[in-house]
Each structure stands twice: as C-alpha cells, then as structure tokens.
Amino acid sequence: MKSVQHEIDERTNLTSSNKFELLLFRLGTDTALGQSELFGINVFKIREIVAMPSITPIAGGSAHSLGVVNLRGQVIPVLDLPAIVGCKPTTGLNIMLVTEFARTTQAFAVESVEDIVRLDWNQVLSAESSGAAGKLVTSIARLDGNTDGTRLAQVLDVEAILQMVTPQEQSANESQKPRSQLNIKNGTIILAADDSFVARTLIEQELQHLHAPYEMVKTGKEAWDRLQVLADQAHAEGKTIMDKVCLVLTDLEMPEMDGFTLTRNIKGDARFKGLPVVIHSSLSGSANEDHVRGVGADGYVAKFSAEDLAATLHGVLPARGK
C-alpha cells in the first residue's frame, strides 16, 4: 500500500506530454457476466489510499452511503462504489479511496487496488464514441495499447456518480438566477469540450442561460480538429479565427487529447493568437491550478458552479465588442 501511495505523490508532472496516471482497482463481480473488471480514476483526483477504517453510519443517509469517517481531522462521507456500479465484492470492502475534486472531499469504498499505470490520452477512447456509453463511465482505457486482446479499464465519471448519489440542488437553483448576457462578437461561438455527459448538460444549460451561441464536443482532439476547420474557413473568407470563435471552454481530463495539450496547442499557434481559453475542471487542487497557469490558460473555474462559470466567462470576455 505504501508503494501505491508513493506513486501517487510523485507523479504530478505529466501534463506537458498528453499523459496521465490511472489508478486501477476492482469492485467485485458484475451482475452481467459474474466477472471482476478493472475500473479507473485519474490519480490527480486521489488524495489518499487507506485500509478501510471504522465507519460511522449516518441516520437517514442515502442508499449508497456507508456513513462517515474521521480522517486527519476531517469528517468525510464514504460511498459504496461497488453498489453504485452494480458489483458485488467477493472479499469485502477492503480499501478506501479518498478523493478531492470539484471542491469536495469524499471517499469511495472498493474491494482492491491493483496498480497505477501511465497512459497516453490517445490510449483512451470516449465511451460514447466507442459504442460503450454508460451513465457512469466516460471512457475506456486500452491498457496495453491498440492491440487485440488488450486489457480494458472503465474510467468512471465521478461527476455523474456524485450527481446520482447526492444531487446538487444548489447548481439547479443557481441556474435560475438572472445573469447578464455575455458580450460576444456577432457571428462567433464558444467552443466547449467535455467528455462527461453530466458536465456537458450543465455547461449547455448555463450557456443557454447566458444567451451564448456555442458548439459542444466530447474530447480535446475533437475541439482541436474543429478549430482547424474553422480557421480554414476564416482564412478562405479573408477573416481570422476571432471572427468564428470568441472563446474555448475546455475540461482537462478527456480521451485522445487532454485540456492541457489543447490549451498549449492553441497558445502555440499563431493562427489562434488572442483566442482566450478557459479551463473548467473538477481537478480543483492548488497543484492543478498551477498546471493551468503553466499552459497559459486565460481563466480557470472549478466544476460545477453555474455562477462561478458565468463570472469567469464575463471576466475573460468583457473587452470584446459586438
């Protein structure tokens, strides 16, 4: 266990190479085939891995809540991850993954931790694009590369899991608050990229609320490819990309190309000079915010607060005339 924790602590400098670390774990046998499958969560979301401590059940807790634990001076809710995804542990809930993202701390009970693997994002395919769409899975990681018989791991959509287990009523209420329309140049759009269905839905609702025209894609590569098309169109019309796109809003964790790489590509290409990029991510720790500044993003907002997203977009766009 110490070696696994050590791997998490030392691998935080992969954002410059379109790579990431995936923590692999098992939840028990599934209800369909009775097999024990591999699941994964980005290491950047893992704060700590501990042997299962004593849990205090909470009266009236949600169906998938095991209770709370007191860990290092903080009371943390613990969720039964096997029950959430429909698995049954064969040896019990032995490990607790303490996660920190979207400004919240919570723990997930799992059966076992297997490994930490370093992957290129191009080894990861969108669950929707690969025909394996599920409400709780964003993507499928090909652990041994694009080869027949490669081991596969399901990358869990932790935002969707939390939304399912503990619906964020505040976000819904925030979306109803009146907000001023974004100052966007006529004829331009916001190009948004996120691989989470839940996140895309919330982003779309907020952009509609702000009366902002937009296009939504599922990966950084799709966003980059779309920018190429729009840049070519602008050039053919004697215009610039700023006549087509006013801002790029991107997640960080995405199949094929992550948000760090997308941002660096945009900032390093003369065709996109002046095009602002706002990163919208559940990776909300200070280390991740340092990475965001390092790639030259114009703004950063942690998921998901409609009010904060609107304020960030207003802060980046106010100088743009219609």
Helix and strand topology:
Elements: H1 2-10, E1 19-30, E2 36-42, E3 46-51, E4 65-71, E5 74-80, H2 81-85, E6 87-88, E7 95-101, E8 104-110, E9 112-120, E10 124-126, E11 137-142, E12 152-156, H3 158-165, H4 169-174, E13 189-193, H5 197-209, E14 214-217, H6 220-236, E15 245-250, H7 259-267, E16 277-281, H8 286-294, E17 299-302, H9 306-316
Parallel strand pairs: 2-12, 5-8, 13-14, 13-15, 15-16, 16-17
Antiparallel strand pairs: 1-2, 1-6, 1-9, 3-7, 4-5, 7-8, 10-11, 11-12
Largest sheet properties: 7 strands, mixed
Mean pLDDT: 86
Order of helices and strands: HEEEEEHEEEEEEEHHEHEHEHEHEH
What's the shape? globular
Q: Uncertain runs with pLDDT below 50, 5 residues or more?
A: 7-12, 169-173
- Specify Rg, calculated over alpha carbons: 20 Å
Description:
With 322 residues, this protein is α/β, with parallel strands linked by helices. It has helices spanning 2-10, 81-85, 158-165, 169-174, 197-209, 220-236, 259-267, 286-294, 306-316; strands at residues 19-30, 36-42, 46-51, 65-71, 74-80, 87-88, 95-101, 104-110, 112-120, 124-126, 137-142, 152-156, 189-193, 214-217, 245-250, 277-281, 299-302. The chain has nine helices and 17 strands. The strands form three sheets. Strands 1, 2, 6, 9, 10, 11 and 12 form a seven-stranded mixed beta sheet that branches. The longest helix is centred in the C-terminal third of the chain and has 17 residues, at 220-236. The chain is globular.
Give a brief rundown of this model:
With 322 residues, this protein is α/β, with parallel strands linked by helices. It has helices spanning 2-10, 81-85, 158-165, 169-174, 197-209, 220-236, 259-267, 286-294, 306-316, and strands at residues 19-30, 36-42, 46-51, 65-71, 74-80, 87-88, 95-101, 104-110, 112-120, 124-126, 137-142, 152-156, 189-193, 214-217, 245-250, 277-281, 299-302.
